[in-house]
Amino acid sequence: MNKLLINFGFLLMLGGFNGCSSISGGTSENLGGTHFYTLSSMPPSSASVSNKISIGIGPVEIPRLLNRPQIVSRKNNTEIIISEKHQWGGSFKEELIRAITDNISTLLKTEKIEQYPWKSSFKPDYQIIIDVDGLDGTLDKSVTYNARWRLLKNDKELLVKRALIEVPVKGPGYNIYVKAQSEAVTRFSRDIVEQIKKQN
To answer: Which is more confidently placed, 18 or 159?
Structure first.
């Protein structure tokens, strides 16, 4: 009888632990699991696609420091943080190119946009070559997007520009940090589109 009571008490205690786990969420976040993120792009326009302009995105080069699954931030000017528990859902380079491509497609209202390398049959009116030096910052202050880019029309170079865009991080946590990175990419995309429009 005593043995039966002991077993019953153990089961009640185990159930209590499970109940506490459920109340606290019981998610991978609470248990210290890895979180995955993606760069967001501008929402697509409800207006119909009307522009027949064709755009080629790339080649795009990024530093090896950023070309990794882990999200990179800075502790100070010389020390970096590579987070094992906060990572990109896919390749960071692919995330960046996709966000730029989607943004420019939305802003120019064109679907005739391809990423490098494109098929030989695709002849873009404009080509954007991007060399990214940095897209990082401090988790509690700001994100800086630093890149050089070139605009070509029919294989002729029209301009070479440097982008240096700083976006404040408006809150704690990696989710807000990634939102600031996305905003920096959006502003960069707007700058590119503004220059393309000046050519027409």
So the answer is: 159
**Domain boundaries, position 161:** 35-198
Instruction: Output the DSSP codes for 95-150.
Output: HHHHHHHHHHHHHHT-S-EEESSPPTT---SEEEEEEEEEEEE-TTSEEEEEEEEE
pTM exceeds 0.90 = no
Domain count, the chain: 2
Same domain, 23 and 49: no
Query: Residues 60-99: pLDDT tens digits?
Result: 999 999 999 999 999 988 999 999 999 999 999 999 999 9
Q: Find the angle CA(40)-CA(72)-CA(127) to the nearest 5 degrees.
A: 50
